[in-house]
Amino acid sequence: MISSYDQAIQYLYNLQPIGIKFGLRNTLSLLSYFDNPHLKIRTIHVAGTNGKGSICSMISSVLQAAGYRVGLYTSPHLVDFTERIMINGLPIPQSEVIRLSGEIRQAISDGDFQAGHPTFFEVVTVMALVYFAEQQVDFAVMETGMGGRLDATNVIQPLVGIITTIDFDHQEYLGHSLLEIAGEKAGIIKPGMAVVSGVQQSEIIQLLAKVCRQRNAELIQAPSVSPSVVRKVSQSLGGQEFEVIWPVSGSDALDGKSFWQRFFISLIGRHQIHNALIALTAIQTLSRRLSGQQQGGEISLSHITQGLACARWPGRAQVYPGSPPIMLDGAHNPAGARQLALLLEELEFSRLILVLGIMKDKDIGGICQELVPLADRVIVTRPRIDRAASGQEIINVLVSKALVADWKMVSVAATVPEAIIMARSMAEAGDLICLTGSLYTVGEAKGFLDALDAR
Which end of the chain is more exposed for a tag (fewer CB within 10 A), N or C? Predict the structure, then answer.
């Protein structure tokens, strides 16, 4: 019997050694036990290599501004498990985690799972869908865990699907070419749905178009961040303002009916404007689909403006103000590190103190090649997770890639809090501390910094 939150979390985490199993059989079996809650809610499904969480947050915030009750399912969490399952910005209560963990555990005990014991992600996905159905959300915004075709979230029947970007990550599971990876992500495309693409590579756009034709789905391409579509107004560590041709159509020219609309987002960097364009395109697409439904309500431009301004996504270029400011960014693959590097080049600071904590199964060299050349000091550290690379393993990569000219600039900290303390001791006025390499690293840093702020 599960009678406490600690017991529930222990039960869930004890499922992690089962590892990753692709396939929908277990998830569908569990959902059947709970009378198929995934068929009782309207959903938006978000897949892609990077940007999923930010886009989910933006869409959820806009729908909330329009008066809807919105479930949000994302992973991983940064500080507490309850962050994975939220309704209107509020995490699932611990009491509900206790109850649902117990009920799902009983369902597994009663069931016959020919595909093997359900995994951590399968169980948590079912927990989210059951909770959202019970709470009668108007929409659930669902982020894939990995891939799409055989991801546990792919049991849903979404109104709108989104494929954010395609780049290299999880190659051991998704394939070793971008087209193979794109094929797995395209697995979320179902007959009759609308699919918004933020993908920029022409060959992948062609693949998505082919899949949509085969499945009688509508493909809508979000516009790229080009001067004819976007005008950046201002940016600071607190956010950025930009203007977009409205309505967002993907067109590179004003058509006489369009106009420039200004938006503010608290998320900084050019890549977050790209994410906002994908979210805006998805919202327009959803609004168009809802207009023909009796349940549909209007999503106005004021709702969109308010929702984007209120959207928050911790751990993605999140800045803790102070002297020096500390930026947390969960860049965990080379593409994410590249976007962070572009952001850092936009900002003004005297020196960059870079804190790196990376998982050993990630492309450590690719991440370091993007970021280390920008740094004046580097601190390598290790979050408290078995998958994390040790400081020495990261240093070995720095040596093999010849990324450091002066080894006096490199230090090792045993833990993430120690790395933050060390970075602050090195910093001078005008410097910036950036802590990155993994969401696990960022999560520990956020927990430590939030605790300091609470004192």
Answer: C
Which CATH number is correct for 318-454, 3.90.190.20, 3.40.50.720, 3.30.70.80, 3.40.605.10? 3.90.190.20
pLDDT tens, residue by residue, 252-271: 444 557 899 999 999 999 99
In this structure, the strands spanning 43-47 and 160-163 are parallel
- Our CA angle for 177, 183, 184, nearest 5°, is 100
pTM (2 d.p.): 0.93
- 48, pLDDT greater than 90: yes
Q: What is the mean pLDDT of the chain?
A: 93
Examine the pLDDT at 390 and tell me if it is beyond 70.
yes
The pairing of beta strand 326-329 with beta strand 318-320: antiparallel
Q: What is the pLDDT of residues 152-192, one digit of tens each?
A: 999 999 999 999 999 887 677 677 799 999 999 999 999 99
In CATH terms, the superfamily for domain 5-310 is: Mur-like, catalytic domain (3.40.1190.10)
Contact indicator for 72, 78 with CB cutoff of 8 Å: no
346's tokens:
């936009």
CB atoms within 10 A of CB 173: 13
Q: Do residues 316 and 54 touch, judged by C-beta distance below 8 A?
A: yes
Distance of CA 359 to the CA centre of its chain: 17
* Cα angle for residues 425, 431, 434 (degrees, 5° grid): 80
d(CA 403, CA 374): 10
| CB-CB contact of 262 with 243 (8 Å) | yes
The model's confidence at residue 230, banded by pLDDT at 50, 70 and 90, is very high
Distance CA 218, CA 297 (A): 22
**Residue 106's pLDDT is what?**
96
The values of phi and psi at residue 354, to 5°, are: -100, 125
What are φ and ψ of residue 333, in 5° steps? -145, 165
State how far Cα 360 lies from the chain centre.
20
Q: Which residue has the higher pLDDT, 17 or 316?
A: 316
- Token pair 């799409």 in the structure block, residue: 148
Task: Report the SS3 class of residue 243.
Answer: strand
Q: Domain ranges for the chain, please list them.
A: 5-310, 318-454
